[in-house]
Every structure is written in structure tokens, then in C-alpha cells.
Amino acid sequence: MLASKIMIVEDEGIVAMDIRRQLTDFGYEVVGTAFSGGQAISLAHEHRPDLVMMDIVLKGDMDGISAAQAIQDALHIPVIFLTAYSDPATLRRAKTTGAYGYLIKPFRPDELHASIEVALYKHQLERKLKESEQWFGKTLHCISDAVIATDPEGRIRFMNPAAETATEQRLEQVKNSLVSDLITLLAESNRDIIENPVLKTLRNREVTHLNCATLLVNQSGVEFPVDDGAAPILDDDGSLLGAVLVFRDISARRQMEHQLRESEERFHSAFELAAIGMALVALDGNFLQVNHALCGIFGYSRQELLKANLQGLTHGNQQGHDLDRHMKQLLADELPTFQIEVECFHKVVGKRVWTMLSASMVRDPDGEPQYFIVQIQNITNRKYAEQQLIYLANHDPLTGLLNRDQFHNRLTQALSSVQRHDTRLALLYLDLDRFKLINDTLGHRLGDLLLQAVSDRLRSSVRVHDLLARLGGDEFIVLLNDINHADDAARIAEKTIDLLTQPFTLEGNDIVVTASIGISVYPNDGKDSHTLLMNADTAMYLAKERGKNNYQFYTLEMTERSLERMTIERGLRHALAHDELRLHYQPQIDTGSGAAVGAEALVRWQHPEWGLVYPDRFINVAEETGLIVPIGAWVLRTACLQAKAWLEQNRPFSCVAVNVSPRQFIESNLFRTIKQTLLETGLPPGALELEITESAVMQDPEITLQVLHQLQQLGVRLSIDDFGTGYSSLTYLRRFPVQSVKIDRSFVIDLPDDEGSKTLVRAIIALAHELKLFVVAEGVETEAQLSFLKAQQCDSLQGYMFSKPVAPEQLENGFMAAGFKIGQPNAPG
Ligand SMILES: Nc1nc2c(ncn2[C@@H]2O[C@@H]3COP(=O)(O)O[C@H]4[C@@H](O)[C@H](n5cnc6c(=O)[nH]c(N)nc65)O[C@@H]4COP(=O)(O)O[C@H]3[C@H]2O)c(=O)[nH]1
Which positions fall inside the EAL domain (predicted)? Predict the structure, then answer.
């Protein structure tokens, strides 16, 4: 510990030395000795001693008391006076300087020592007290709470600046006045005066709180809400020194609380009454708060949800992972907010809820994450509607199979996959045979039911990774993915044809359908979806041509055929415009008389390069392209003119038969054309027979029936061509106003050896006669056929046996001129 520094002021040199010696002996450090008042002041400034030993009587102008006063004022250094005099006046003066000791010379060393120690200790205590007072004073000065201290009677002793501001009074003005006069306290609820807590505290010597909401009214009449209370000030032995009143103006806090409450209420009602689901979610995903709408979305009660976890409601699928990822990004402050579609579980097992989920993060003022605010909207209906729209856009509404557009897309995808993996795929283009007929005879409703039933069967026949689509009408397509060999496609086509051949029972009707299937295989028959589809379609047409109810592969030959079809189409247009068409006639022989009774007009095309072209090569193309309508009109006109000429020439002839194609019924005003032609050519209607195929009649039976009745009224004869090859026309036959039927060549060809043909021909003739119809057999080539037909009383005959179709002049010069009779088979032809 450092020795205390002491300065000596003594004008007697020997005395000063003696004191110095004693002080040094006591262990003090003597930092200086002054001999006058002035010197004492400057040395004190210089050495800053802990204590000054000051002689009162000094030489010079300034005595020790004045010097001590100056040192005290400037440096607050304690002073012990040394004097030989102790008169009361000097002592009084010395006392006013706040002296720390007073030693009367001569003094004993122990007196000196004790005085110094007491003075140093006292000074140290005073300094600490001062420091502490200063510290408290500053603290009270700074705090925002108002502090008023009173004596035991409640008189004001102290007020800090906050109290001065609140009461609008300065301490000097109110010091010693009663605190209860300075402020009045009122109960906020009823404005009754409340006893000042200081008074109660002084009475009870204990802390008194303001128990109710309290208003403080100052002397100016200003009032504001306050809180806190009073506490007693007790000294160490517990005696009451006074009380301290502490209060604060809580108007601002009240307002903030009010605003906060309002804002909380607003938030709460917005949260609770929101039409969409809302939740506060803890950082670990647990629900902290959920609203009514959210419970409704998931079917859980509030209590159940509050025990649940947001992630637990989502599927562990990609959306669930996305949600997790986004929540983590929110937490890491990498996203301000997010919105995603999430599929969630409902309380009802198996039920799913589609939601639009948006979330943001709530952070405290330091940016620390607190919780998530999550908004959840039920978009299940929208999602289903979207899915429904997508489904409708991609599927055929009748059968639920893929539609044409979607099939195209899926085929394109499948193609890119097989191209990558260098594998094969096949398309089966399936068209129901004679579906239109079924539709027309049984009605569209049953037609639709049949298409649905066919779809179901097809569905059951394809493998899971194959695709099935309905392209429209009765056309279906099957994509066989990843086949090893074209034979696989053939096997499936065969199986499909067999499958469809089993009768369908729809509303009590047993319906048998067959199908024609065209097959194209990637990569041989095309590399893109368009070509593959087109080629499968072409192959399907080949299957139709080859008798229906079979499948055909696409071949190069087919492409050539379609090219030829186009050439023929172009050529036919040219032929019509450049008069290249011709009519040949084949006579029809009356079985009884053996005389020619009529002739069938058959069209030929005299092509400049190809020579004479037969109808087998171009009639189908004319039919498909619609060119049959103008060609048919030309045939009709030419045949009528020819027949009229023969009639006028009195040739052995009563009737010309003209073929009418199905398309002529549908697309042209057949009745008007015929009536007009008869008028223009002058041929009597009875000399014209129209040959209509069964299939033409059956395409649209109601319209056909109407036209046929008109034609009958006109007097034109009507005949059903190719009879026996059609679907089930017997019922219609009775209703149609036809005069004759023509037995198809395919039945005559096997006569009389084939039992089946014999039975059929016999039945047709008997049935036709029963219905009072005239029967013509075509394709008679042999004597045996002739005698069988004669025996069955077939009315009329046509065939190479009598004459091939020939040009009119040839017929006139040969057959007609010869006056052919049965029994003269080698008539010219
Ligand atoms: N093997 C054999 N064939 C015989 C015999 N007798 C007749 N034919 C052939 O059988 C066909 C009969 O005509 P279709 O059944 O009406 O069949 C016709 C008809 O459906 C159609 N056709 C011909 N001309 C016209 C026409 O002007 N308009 C329409 N719409 N179709 C026509 O073309 C088909 C074929 O006509 P064509 O080639 O002239 O062939 C004719 C004829 O030459 C025979 O004893 N043996």
C-alpha cells in the first residue's frame, strides 16, 4: 500500500522539521513544506497531497485558515490545523473551512498520528459518499420515471426532472410542501380520489402499489394515467426517514396497448373468419394456430389439427418435397414468400384435397425466424375441372378412348422412344365392316352402345403398354409398342378380329360385327406418325377390298395403287371433259321365250394410251371421289338415247338397265336427274330399269325408300343388283317398290355342282316369286347353269353364254340382227 502523502505548512523551520520527522517516522510521505499561505496553495496544486498539516498563524498576508479555505475550495484536500492558540474566534473561523482536525501545540506524537488517521479516514468516507450521491443523483436525473422523495411527514425533499415535468413544478417551488398537495390521484373507473400511496407507506412503513387504474392530476389540472407506487425510506436501524414515490405516465403505453389489442383483434377476426384456410406453423412444421376454414378443408377438428404437422398432411411425393424445400428456403431467408399447388390428405381415408398453399415467414426485430404464416386454398374442384378438361380434350367422349389428336401426340412420343432404343412398333387401323348399316337399321343409340362395347373388347385385348384410340366413326387404332416382329402384329390383329366376331348382345339384340384391319410397322412402313397412320389406313382399305373381316399389312404395292388411284381420278376428269367414256351393252334373255328382252348398259373408258379400260379399274375411284355422279348422269343419258333409238328402230328390245351407285343416291337429286333425262331423251319410263345394289339401298334406307317411291310413280322399273351379297335386306325388300332382283354372279358361278349355291339360288327365286318379283340371274356361262336356272323358273338370264357386253353397233349387227333365242348359245358376242 502506498504511503499517504502529507504536506506541512509551518513558518517555524524547527517545528516544521520536527513534524516532518514525526510524520516520516509514522510512515507517511512528506511531499513538501510551505512556510507561507501563498506557498502552501501553490505546493498543494503541485503535489496534490492527501492531507495538509496547516499552521494557523503564518508570516505574511495570508494566515493558515485562508490558505486552507483556498486549498479546500480548489482541490478538496483535507486540512488539520496546528495552532498554539485556541481562542473561540479563531476556532469558529477554522471550523467554517470544514477542517478535519485541530491540534493544539504542543501535541504528542500519538495525538498527531491519531488526528492524521481520523482525518484521512473521514475524507475517504466523504469522498465515497459524494461519489455515491453523485451516481444516484445522475441516475435519478436520467431515468424517465418520476421520483419524489419526502420526509416522514410527507413533505417533498427531492424531485427528479421527470417528476418536475409530470407535475409541471420545479423542486425549489415545492420543496417542503406536502406531496398530497402537489398531486391528486383519481380512480380511473369512477374518478374517486385515491389516497396518495406516500401517506399509506409512511403510515404502514411498507411498499404501497397503485392497485387500480389511476389518473394523476397535477396542480395545473392536467391528468394522465400512471402506475407504480411508494416505498418507505428506512435507515440502517429501521427508523423511518421518509418515503419515495415513483410513477410514470403510461398514456403512450396505454395507446400502444390499445392499438396492439385492436390490431390483434383485427388480425384474429381476419384470421378466423377468412374464407381460405390459414395457419400459424411452428418452425418444425407443427400447427400453432388454425382457422375454421382450414379445419373444413382437411376435415379435422381444431384440436386434431393442432396436434398435427403440416408436412404430415401432404403426400410424400414430389409436391411434398417441393413444400419442404420451399419452407427451408423461407427459413434461410432465401425466399420472401412462395406459392405452390400441393395435393393433401383428407381425414376421410382415400379422399384427396388439392390445395394452393402460400407461406411467408414471421421474424422478430432481430431477424430471428418465429413462425410461418400459411394460407391454404382448396382448389380441388378447379383441379378436377382442369383434369376433366384435359381428359375431354384428349379423349373420345363416347368410348373414353384417346382421341385422334392425343393419339398423334402419344404416337410421336412412342416413335422418339423406339428410335432411341432401335425397336419396332406397329399400328393396327381397325374399321368395323358395314357399321353404317347397323347404325341405320338399329338406330344411332344402339350404334353408340355397340361402339362402346367394341371399345371395351378392344381394351381387354391390348397390353398395358399399348395404346388404343378412336379416330372417329367406327375407326379405331391400336399402337403396339415394342414388337419383335411384324408377325406379332398379325397375331394381335387376328386375335382382335376373332374377339369382335363373338356376337354382342345389346338391349336384347344379338349383333354380329366384323372388322377390317390395316397394319403398318415402324420403321419399314414409315418413320413418322403421319405416314404410319396413312399407310395403316391404306392397308385397312385393302382389307375391305379383300372381302372385309380380315387384316392386311401395308405394302409398297399399296402405295403404287394409291398413286394409280390418283392417276385414274385425274384421267376420269379428263375423260368426262373429252368424251372418252363409252357404253357397252349386255343383252338380257327371257328364260321362257329365249328372246332378248333388254340390255344392261355397262360403262367403259376408251383411254388414249391404255386402250379400253373396264369399270373394275375405275368405278371405285369414281365412287370415292364423287366423280360417279357426273359419270352416272352421262351413262343415264347415253343409255336412254340408245334405248330410245332402238325402240324407234323396232329392235327386239323392251328395256335398258342402268347401274346406279350408292353415292348417286346421297349426293345428287337422282329423281330430278332421271325425270329430266327421260323428258329430254323421250324414252318412256317403263323402258328404263335402274339397278341398285343392296348396299346402296342400305346406306340410308329411309332416303332410298323415298326416292324409290318417286321413281316408281314416274314409271321407272327398279331392280336390286348383286342380290344375296348384302346384309339383311329381306325385311326391306318387302317395303321397297322394286320389280326385280338380280342374283349375284358369285352364286351362279358354282351352279349346279355346289349344294350351298343351289340351295341359296333356289331360295332366292322362291322368295322373290313369293314377293311377286321378277328374277334375273347374271353370269350365266354354261349349259348346266342355264338348265338349273331354267328348272328353277328364273325369269331372265344374262351372261357370256349369250353375249359379253359389247358396243351398241356390235349388238345391233350381231345379236339383235340374229334374233337370238335360247338354244342358240353360240350367238355372236
Ligand atoms: N365373268 C363373267 N362376267 C360377266 C358375265 N356376264 C356379265 N359379266 C360381268 O358382270 C358385270 C355385271 O355388272 P354389275 O354386276 O352391274 O357390275 C358392274 C357395275 O357394278 C359396275 N358398273 C359398270 N358400269 C357402271 C355404270 O355405268 N355405273 C355404275 N354405277 N356402275 C357400273 O362395274 C361392275 C363391273 O362391270 P363390268 O366389268 O362391265 O362387268 C359386268 C359384266 O361384264 C359372265 O357370264 N361371266
Answer: 565-819
